[in-house]
Amino acid sequence: MNKQQSLDTLNSYNKNTLMETLQIEFIDVGSNFITAKMPVNSKVHQPHGILHGGATAALAETVGSCASAFFLNDSNKIVKGIELSINHLKSKKTGEVFATAKAIHQGKTTHLWEVKIVDEEENLISLCKITNIVLNKK
User: Fold this and answer.
1) Could you tell me which of 117, 86, 134 has the C-alpha nearest to residue 22?
2) 136, CA 20 to 30 Å: which among 6, 66, 68, 88?
């Protein structure tokens, strides 16, 4: 599967989900990473007019979980997030944020990913670790 086919596949999973609501779009995939973007506007603001930490966490979990499933590439398995830790370092009012997941550990049953969320100028907005469990489909 080439890069564009991979992105088309990843983006096809967003239909009728929270990812579609938040306008999350996968924009890059490599041999050991996946990147998605999300617009920052009133739909993802908290009451003070800045990016809501929950929206940021949803972006991080989306990218980290999808990375596990994508690189596992086993239709007999399902990936579920079991722990998310996120530090919000900088606020953002408008524009876009970009989340890149890179593997720290990919075992048979658990995966650990680091997700960096940056703005258009590469300023670090949030830093996340997500742990996923790999289970057999029932």
Assistant:
1) 117
2) 6
Q: How far apart are the first and last CA of the chain?
A: 27
CA distance 81 to 78: 10
pLDDT tens digits for range 9-27: 899 888 999 999 999 999 9
Residue 92 has which token pair? Answer: 């953002």
Going by C-alpha positions, the residue among 60, 79, 55 that lies closest to residue 130 is: 60
Catalytic residues: 61
Name the β-bridge partners of 7: none
CB crowding 105-138: b at 16 or more within 10 Å, else e: ebeeeebbbbbbbbbeeeeebbbbbbbbebeeee
Tens of pLDDT, residue by residue over 28-47, are 999 999 999 999 999 999 99
Q: What's the pTM value of the predicted model, to 2 decimals? A: 0.95
- Measured CA distances, 8 to 2, 3, 4, 45, 82 (Å): 10, 9, 6, 28, 26
Pairing mode, strands 124-136 and 95-106? unpaired
